[in-house]
Amino acid sequence: MPAFDHGALRDELAGNAASLSDNAIAPALVAAALGQGESVLTADGALSVRTGAFTGRSPKDKFIVRDALTEDKVWWDNSGALSPAAFDRLLGDVREHLAGQALFRQDLLAGADPRHQYDVTVLTPSAWHALFIRNLLIRRGEAVPASPDADPVTILHAPHFKADPARHGSRTETLIALDMSRNLVVIAGTLYAGEIKKSVFSLFNFHAPARNVLPMHCSANLGPDGEAALFFGLSGTGKTTLSNDPARPLIGDDEHGWSEDGVFNLEGGCYAKTVKLSATAEPEIHAATRRFGTVLENVILDANSLPAFDDVTLTENTRAAYPIHVLPSIARGSVGGTPKSVVFLTADAFGVLPPLARLTPEQAVYHFLSGYTAKVAGTERGITEPQATFSACFGAPFMPLHPVVYGQMLAERLHRSGAQAWLLNTGWTGGGYGVGKRIDIASTRRLLTAALDGALDHADMRFDPLFGFEVPLSVPGVDDSLLDPRRTWADPDAYDAQATRLVELFRNNFNKFGPDADPRAGPRLQMAAE
């Protein structure tokens, strides 16, 4: 396929617009969003917006064009397929839909390493979506150098366009369509801004392995010697909270690449969950929600126009989008050295997993491919007891290739780097949700610090007979009983039954990758040393 002319498409859309706001900065976008009735200001000056019927992503409405490039690469069991003809009809119809509208254009970068960078242009009729993506991607002329060879990506954002399943090959009137061959994205029928951000990530995740870069849905920060620590985890496990540490400069909070030279952030901002946000427990994030230009999604405002973070009337998936530079401690250039530590976060609502465990490389890959956490009763309709959630690579909806491709890359990097992997449970102890209690964040931070600073390198450990990992017997400042979850249960036999059940859930989930693997040893992937 000949190279696609992104410049011509961008110029056509700009030329056919009723008006064009070209790379407007935050004050102009805030003014436009207010003028168009898209939003209101909080008392602190943040922009408060609603996303309508969609308060989260629509993974079942995400489709990849099935063509010669993607046919034998994409994990189609996990991705909807769209024909090239259907995508072209969608592209043509959305171009016609956007013609004559006032558009906002943002030319941004994705990838803090210029050798692995994308030149991203987003065109949208929504001022607040333009501000959102300006906050989230890398703004030209700031701390990250721009590469003249960056691959172009064009995103057409048409939140009020309704897809036609018969004409466009969609499932509903909502459609997130990605053409990997031409690096084109069309988003239709949803106001949820996370679709824009995750479309860029999905494109990166498809192309990166071919360039020997491991794409990762994780946060990352830096230790005192410039070595990186990675934090993988699904929503609600503490990924953003725990990586925001004044003593450890933040590389990024969500999307990264691991190249031969180290770790780099794909983005230039943060998209933090704000449900029950605390100024005491998460001061840096809380402060960011009070700044001018931050976008607050679906956050209820009180009578004084201040965010009521405990109010989940609209959704528990309330968010704040802000540039990374507003945080007090960030890594220069949004890059870091080779990781020394890899932390897998889980919020185990069954009350089974210890708060901290040391993993072998094989076990690390197993937990990476499993991507486990648990939903708790009351978070969704119909959930009356904890439910295990497994998302391969801690981000299956954004990983177009088979998870084993990414797992193999992680295995090789763990071997070459010697990075130590840990499992950190931020969930429940003393029983499952409804019986036990959530592990307090102060203890979690002490455990994490001990793991990252090497205090546990030679510590006494016990062997867990069910999962096979090692668990420290003692950590300064942490109650010893907390480290052995069985001891925290009033009924040890009930713990044993729940633990056996969780192990079986892990095994059943892993069957989809092929032959079952023992969680005590990990999957049988070819390691670089063999």
Automatic annotation (TrEMBL):
Involved in the gluconeogenesis. Catalyzes the conversion of oxaloacetate (OAA) to phosphoenolpyruvate (PEP) through direct phosphoryl transfer between the nucleoside triphosphate and OAA. Transmembrane segments: none annotated. InterPro entries: PEP_carboxykinase_ATP, PEP_carboxykinase_C, PEP_carboxykinase_N, PEPCK_ATP_CS. It comes from the Bacteria. Keywords: ATP-binding, Cytoplasm, Decarboxylase, Gluconeogenesis, Kinase, Lyase, Manganese, Metal-binding, Nucleotide-binding, Pyruvate, Transferase. GO terms for cellular component: cytosol. ATP binds at residues 198, 217, 233-241, 282, 319, 438-439, 444. One of its GO terms (biological process) is gluconeogenesis. Binds 1 Mn(2+) ion per subunit. Pathway: Carbohydrate biosynthesis; gluconeogenesis. It is found in: Cytoplasm. One of its GO terms (molecular function) is metal ion binding. Mn(2+) binds at K198, H217, D254. The keyword ATP-binding applies. Its main location: cytoplasm. This is Phosphoenolpyruvate carboxykinase (ATP). The gene is pckA. It is an enzyme of class 4 (lyase). Its EC number is 4.1.1.49. Substrate binds at R57, Y192, K198, R319. It catalyses: oxaloacetate + ATP = phosphoenolpyruvate + ADP + CO2. Belongs to the phosphoenolpyruvate carboxykinase (ATP) family. Its cofactor is Mn(2+).
